[in-house]
């Protein structure tokens, strides 16, 4: 059962809609409050992008934007296609020198470059790679020079603030390490801090003030907010969601003062958190329910103001949809 003790429960509806709320509690409830919020993000218009894939795309984990190009990948190859209806995707992999050594569960585009992260647990092997330089795909170029990572802490999630790439460790208990690598040239990862009491980080987003981590933790599964200025201070849960142990896509709509944070829950539903960096962020609930437990990919186009995701609920071969 969903518990609102540490994060509010959100319900999404149009003005005038009636909601019935039942509460079961072994002890008297000391307080109960309901708030309503105006919402101006994406959600109601769904377009089938009719993308044609050269091979099966059903084993997908990650998606990002590089300019107007959408890139979706798994642990062995990536697909790239323009954000227009009827596009034909191109596939890149071993032929371009991009292999499972370079790929994992997340991708991020920064300034025309594309980065991927591998899930190695080696403390000294590179795990962040540039796989597209703006004109050429591959081979995977190690970007985290001379790293020193914590033992047994792989990276499943990366993010950007438009300048840097951030990596969150996927430790299975206790804490999460967050590293920074500049996107302009290969460089040594900087440990920004270790956030206590949050673990299984499988989705990461960033703005100029906070990191947003889809994870498990001391307050249960959901989205946790971590101060960039003091990672060590810990994490605050801002939404209760069903998280995966592999991948939860999470996206801010702006790198400065974001109004909406979009998260794809395990099971495929897409949720929204209003004003995630404010003193009172509000989890508004699911804005779209397309997808299954095998569908992970989602990205946000900050220029076009639309979400893109992959889903197999309505088409077993999978399709890309745009949500506006």
Can you tell me about this structure?
By secondary structure, the protein is mainly beta. Helices cover 0% and strands 41% of the residues. It contains no helices and 24 strands. It has a 4-stranded antiparallel beta sheet with strand order 1-24-23-22, with no helix packed on it. The protein is globular and about 60 Å long. The mean pLDDT is 94.
Short synopsis of the structure:
This protein is an all-beta fold and 324 residues long. It is 0% helix and 41% strand. It has no helices and 24 strands.
Main-sheet strand order equals: 1-24-23-22
Mean pLDDT: 94
* Overall geometric form: globular
Strand % is 35-45%
**Helix share of residues?**
under 10%
Task: Give the number of DSSP strands.
Answer: 24
Task: Write the H/E string, N to C.
Answer: EEEEEEEEEEEEEEEEEEEEEEEE
> What's the main sheet like?
4 strands, antiparallel
List keywords for this structure.
324 residues, mainly beta, four-stranded antiparallel beta sheet, 24 strands, 0% helix, 41% strand
Fold blueprint:
Elements: E1 46-48, E2 62-66, E3 69-73, E4 78-82, E5 90-92, E6 106-110, E7 113-117, E8 128-132, E9 137-142, E10 155-160, E11 164-169, E12 175-182, E13 190-196, E14 198-206, E15 210-217, E16 222-227, E17 235-240, E18 250-252, E19 260-264, E20 270-274, E21 282-288, E22 298-301, E23 306-311, E24 319-323
Antiparallel strand pairs: 1-24, 2-3, 3-4, 4-5, 6-7, 7-8, 8-9, 10-11, 11-12, 12-13, 14-15, 15-16, 16-17, 18-19, 19-20, 20-21, 22-23, 23-24
């Amino acid at each position: 059962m969903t518990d609102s003790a540490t994060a509010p429960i959100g319900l999404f509806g149009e003005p005038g809609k009636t909601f019935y709320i039942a509460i079961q509690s072994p002890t008297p409830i000391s307080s109960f409050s309901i708030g309503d919020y105006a919402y101006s993000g994406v959600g109601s218009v769904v377009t089938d992008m009719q993308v044609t894939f050269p091979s099966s795309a059903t084993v997908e984990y990650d998606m990002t934007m590089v300019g107007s190009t959408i890139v979706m990948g798994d642990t062995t190859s990536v697909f790239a296609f323009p954000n227009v209806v009827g596009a034909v995707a191109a596939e890149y992999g071993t032929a371009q020198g991009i292999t499972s050594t370079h790929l994992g569960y997340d991708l991020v585009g920064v300034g025309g470059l594309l980065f991927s992260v591998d899930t190695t647990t080696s403390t000294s092997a590179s795990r962040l790679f540039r796989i597209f330089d703006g004109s050429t795909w591959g081979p995977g170029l190690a970007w985290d020079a001379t790293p020193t990572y914590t033992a047994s802490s792989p990276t499943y999630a990366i993010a950007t603030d438009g300048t840097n790439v951030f990596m969150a460790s996927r430790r299975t208990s206790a804490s999460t390490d967050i590293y920074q690598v500049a996107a302009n040239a290969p460089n040594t990862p900087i440990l920004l801090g270790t956030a206590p009491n949050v673990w299984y980080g499988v989705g990461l987003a960033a703005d100029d003030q906070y990191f947003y981590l889809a994870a498990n933790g001391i307050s249960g599964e959901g989205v946790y907010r971590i101060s960039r200025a003091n990672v060590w201070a810990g994490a605050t849960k801002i939404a209760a969601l069903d998280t995966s142990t592999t991948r939860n896509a999470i996206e801010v709509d702006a790198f400065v003062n974001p109004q909406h944070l979009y998260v794809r829950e395990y099971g495929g539903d897409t949720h929204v958190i209003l004003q995630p960096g404010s003193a009172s962020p509000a989890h508004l609930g699911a804005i779209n329910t397309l997808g299954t437990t095998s569908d992970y990919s989602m990205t946000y186009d900050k220029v076009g103001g639309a979400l893109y995701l992959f889903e197999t609920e309505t088409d077993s071969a999978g399709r890309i949809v745009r949500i506006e």
